[in-house]
Amino acid sequence: MSEPMPGTPIVALMWEAKAAPDRAPDLLTWARARTNELTPAPLRHELLRAPGDRVLVIAWWPGAYDADVPELPDPEGELLARPVHRWRFESLGTDAAPPSGSRDVT
Question: Of 9, 35, 38, 70, which one has the fewest beta carbons inside 10 Å?
């Protein structure tokens, strides 16, 4: 997917699941595969993991907060220790920090 026009609203979808005991690698593989199958593809996506066998996917899409965009489904029940959590956020842009060690010279 190409970059959105400046000023285009962006919505971020977060999907988080906790793996059943001994199933964290399987849940991570499942989440990676499902994220790569999203159609259309998001502008950007990121896959993260955390202690407690948690997997998080964040996907950014062009559109307003209530835009109709694809979401990750729930995996098979045997992969999960609890129901999936989902959140939706509206992007307010990015604030890039200056590179480490740089200084403002005026």
Answer: 9
